[in-house]
Write a structure and sequence with these properties.
Layout: E1 8-12, E2 18-19, E3 35-39, E4 70-71, H1 76-82, E5 86-87, E6 91-96, H2 102-113, E7 119-123, H3 128-137, E8 146-149, E9 165-169, H4 186-203, E10 206-212, E11 231-236, E12 243-251, E13 259-265, E14 268-271, H5 276-279, E15 290-297, E16 300-312, E17 320-323, H6 327-341, E18 348-354, H7 366-378, E19 386-388, E20 391-392, E21 398-399, H8 404-413, E22 418-422, H9 426-429, E23 437-441, H10 444-452
Parallel strand pairs: 6-10, 6-11, 7-8, 7-9, 9-10, 17-18, 19-22, 22-23
Antiparallel strand pairs: 1-2, 1-3, 4-5, 11-12, 12-13, 13-14, 15-16, 16-18, 20-21
Bound molecules: adenosine-5'-diphosphate and magnesium ion (MG).
Length: about 450
């Protein structure tokens, strides 16, 4: 029987104005391209409305802990990023550029899980035989993995009997019959995701949802989905390099700074346990412009190299190009170096890169960026086994940072010989003084004096 078409309207994402048909310009706020198709839901009868979470207000002491049921994905690196395993009934979004390896990673996880669970791979992008070809290439034998090649999300529900894990590859390729807009539009992506959420919460099925990120924004990016998801992971890396970083940007069941490091090989994606090859270069210490900082990401501390290049600007306005650190932060640090330490950078282009494609958002890497820039400026390399960390303030003072002990102990473990720490953190790391030279730094100037002028 043909389903009666649901009533839809177009709603402006900016101001909420609605219209029965699509308009390029919102008549209410005047913004362009903001009208998104949505389902019109009939108003509920108030007397029939039931409270969603079962009613009355209670004291907090009466609330019982919910024990999250976690399952291992078979890859400890992936479990870590999720906060210790896959939580039953959660929605996990895996975003990333096309071709980065999202399908590969999820195929591997699905085949591991299908050993003793019922797993469904809802492939909207690739045919069943393409997925099979991939499992053969990766030497997986997921005989019990269920696969369906379909694009209509409304067909999914009837296939879910007994299924515990479901992979949707990808959210941009699926559509629901309720909306007339094409697959991948903001309205479709949002409606499909909320359907999946209702299924996940209602039936306790865990969903892994693949979302492509495009630079042009032609497809609705995973950004519009983030608030619906329990966990949002980004799979990143340079396409030509083999290393991939899985980052958690939202997690209702764990730490959001957690990262996992993987390597893309012919046999699939394998977790990396020795990071030194990923975040530190072979030639560090030979050329000026690089500094190493122990960065804390989630529960883990790892040494990351920051490389900088200072070049004479060929145009009137100097360029500042940071990769892996915030643009505004770089501009601020350059201003501090100019004003407080007398480095003339106003007519130079400055490029900064955190090795391995990692994103450093911590303030503790400030001092390392400054020392890498000073090293490039003076043309003097920093010793291979010297690490630097500390937050830099506008007055040029170096502030204390968290996890100081852990950072120093990581440097000791990696065989470093000297570490520059904020003077205010000195007390907590005195016990390492016999294993590594710990130098207290009170001002950025002190760092420059210690590294380049002694
Ligand atoms: N036949 C193949 N042999 C070796 N590597 C392959 C093959 N097919 C795909 N790959 C690798 O896998 C990557 C694509 O992974 P995939 O999981 O399909 O990406 P995504 O799902 O994120 O778009 C490609 O970038 C390529 O490096
Ligand atoms: Mg894919």
């Amino acid at each position: 029987m043909a389903k009666s078409k649901a009533v839809t309207q177009f709603v402006c994402c900016e101001c909420g104005a609605s219209s029965p048909r699509w308009l390029g310009k919102c008549p209410s706020c005047g913004k362009f391209n903001t009208m998104v198709e949505e389902l019109v839901k009939p108003a509920e009868n108030k007397s029939e409305r039931k409270a969603v979470y079962g009613g009355r207000a209670r004291p907090l002491s009466e609330i019982k802990f919910e024990n999250y049921n976690r399952t291992s994905s078979g890859m400890s690196e992936f479990d870590n990023v999720l906060g210790g395993g896959i939580v039953t009934g959660s929605l996990v979004l895996i975003g990333g550029d096309p071709g980065i390896g999202k399908s590969t990673l999820l195929t591997q996880i699905a085949s591991h899980l299908s050993n003793d669970r019922k797993v469904l791979y809802f492939s909207a992008e690739e045919s069943c035989s393409q997925v099979k070809l991939r499992t053969e290439r990766l030497n997986l034998n997921p005989d019990r993995l269920l696969i369906i090649n379909e694009t209509c999300i409304d067909c999914l529900e009837s296939e879910l009997d007994g299924v515990e894990f479901c992979i949707i590859d990808s959210i941009q390729a699926v559509y629901t019959d309720d909306l007339s807009s094409s697959a991948g539009s903001v309205g479709q992506v949002r409606e499909c995701a909320s359907k999946l959420m209702r299924i996940a919460k209602g039936r306790g099925i865990t969903f892994f949802i693949v979302g492509h990120v495009t630079k042009e924004g032609a497809l609705a990016g995973p950004k519009v989905l983030e608030h619906i998801m329990d966990t949002v992971l980004y799979f990143e890396g340079e396409n030509q390099e083999n290393f991939r970083i899985l980052r958690s940007v939202k997690n209702r069941f764990g730490n959001v700074q957690e990262v996992g490091v993987f390597e893309m090989t012919g046999e699939g994606i394998i977790p990396v346990t020795d990071y030194s090859g990923v975040f530190l270069s072979e030639s560090r210490g030979e050329e000026p412009g690089s500094a190493v900082t122990p960065a804390q990401t989630g529960a883990r501390c790892m040494n990351v190299e920051i490389q900088t290049l200072i070049a004479k600007t060929s145009f009137g306005v100097p360029r500042r190009m940071p990769l892996g650190i915030d643009y505004n932060k770089l501009v601020l640090l350059i201003a501090v170096l100019e004003k407080r330490c007398g480095l003339a950078l106003s007519s130079s282009d400055v490029y900064v890169n955190a090795m391995g494609g990692i994103k450093l958002s911590e303030p503790s890497c400030d001092l390392a960026v400054c020392s890498a820039l000073a090293s490039a400026y003076y043309g003097k390399p920093i010793d291979k086994y010297t690490a630097v960390f500390g937050e830099v303030g506008l007055t040029g003072e170096v502030r204390a940072v968290s996890y100081c002990e852990k950072r120093v102990s990581e440097c000791v473990k990696m065989g470093f010989k000297k570490v520059l720490v904020p003077a205010k953190n000195m007390k907590s790391v005195l016990k390492y003084a016999d294993k590594i030279a710990v130098v207290p730094i009170l001002y950025v100037n002190t760092m420059i004096k210690n590294l380049f002028k002694d």
